[in-house]
Design a protein that fits this description.
- The protein is built from eight helices and ten strands.
- The protein is of the alpha/beta class.
- The chain has two domains: 146 residues, D-Maltodextrin-Binding Protein, domain 2; 92 residues, D-Maltodextrin-Binding Protein, domain 2.
- The strands form three sheets. It has a five-stranded mixed sheet, sandwiched between helices.
- Helix 4 links the parallel strand 6 and strand 7.
- The radius of gyration is 18 Å and the shape is elongated.
- The protein starts with 56 loop residues before the first strand and ends in a 10-residue tail after the last helix.
């Protein structure tokens, strides 16, 4: 997570943090989604796919949609990591950019059981066994690390290990992989403070209600660059079991194998690593904490 989300919007040229999934995600370990590609992309063309709107592809994400995942709060422009990934998947499936329709789906409702008003959702949603009981996941398109953010004038700003946070009050968003990561990897003497929204997490840090917050690394980068410039990304550490993000689909969707096949082809061709390098490489340089 995770985003899964923040209510701050800034001008187009200003990068804004996304918390939500922000690294946004569930309190179960990431696990195999069971959605390995088992079809050929030759069997995954628009005339063969059972999409919500025949001949078109409906893709969902939350709103606001923040950098580095989206740019200018506009998923349709193809700018930002997840916007670019969605259009790359669409292209592999034979859909032109004009055949992709974007809809809004709140992070926390995306993995609820039941019918979906989209073909797939990209929103920093971690693949977890619990979620996979209610929805399908594609093959993963990104693996996120977790980051610790503290205020620059805090004693924790110069921390060099996870043990330095043993007595800290740490803020996290409820239902996220970040929450699990704090419990499993840091195990602070005081249980983390859990907030309903990522916006509340940001406010708690700014108001010094917590000593530090844990989010995914890309979110931490933009949080400190824009939302909390007085904050510092102290370091990063892996989420227990890894934190793989996948496209989310309705349970037993006939599209799952084709979306996975598209992602796997993008990986093999080098296109997906190139998209990640363009949009994410600058945000993943925080020191590693052990």
């Amino acid at each position: 997570m995770s985003r899964s989300r923040i209510a701050f919007l800034l001008p187009a040229l200003v990068a804004v943090a996304l918390f939500a999934g922000c690294g946004g995600d569930d309190d179960d370990e990431s696990g195999d989604s069971g959605s390995e590609a088992t079809v050929s992309l030759e069997d995954c063309t628009p005339d063969q796919l059972e999409t919500l709107d025949p001949g078109r592809l409906t893709v969902a994400t939350d709103k606001p949609a923040f950098p580095p995942y989206f740019v200018d709060d506009d998923p349709t422009n193809g700018e930002g990591f997840e916007s670019a990934v969605a259009y790359a998947i669409a292209d592999q499936l034979g859909f032109a950019k004009g055949d992709v329709n974007w809809v809004v789906e709140a992070f926390n409702s995306s993995y609820a059981p039941g019918p979906k008003d989209f073909d797939f959702d990209v929103n920093q949603i971690s693949i977890t066994p619990k979620r996979a009981e209610a929805v399908d996941f594609s093959a993963p398109y990104y693996v996120a690390e977790q980051a610790i953010v503290a205020l620059k004038d805090s004693d924790l700003a110069d921390a060099t290990s996870l043990a330095d946070f043993a007595d800290a009050t740490i803020g996290v968003q409820i239902g996220t992989t970040s929450q699990e990561a704090v419990d499993a990897s840091i195990a602070p003497s005081t249980p983390p403070k859990v907030f309903d929204t990522s916006n509340d997490v940001v406010t708690a840090l700014k108001n010094e209600q917590v000593d530090a917050v844990v989010v995914d690394v890309p979110t931490a980068y933009f949080l400190t660059a824009v939302q909390v410039p007085e904050g510092k990304t102290v370091g990063q550490f892996p989420a227990p079991g890894g934190d793989e993000w996948g496209a989310l689909l309705e349970k037993d969707s006939p599209l799952t194998a084709c979306v996975s096949a598209a992602i796997e082809e993008l990986n093999e061709s080098g296109d997906l690593p190139a998209i990640e390098k363009r949009w994410m490489s600058d945000v993943t340089n925080a020191p590693v904490l052990e």
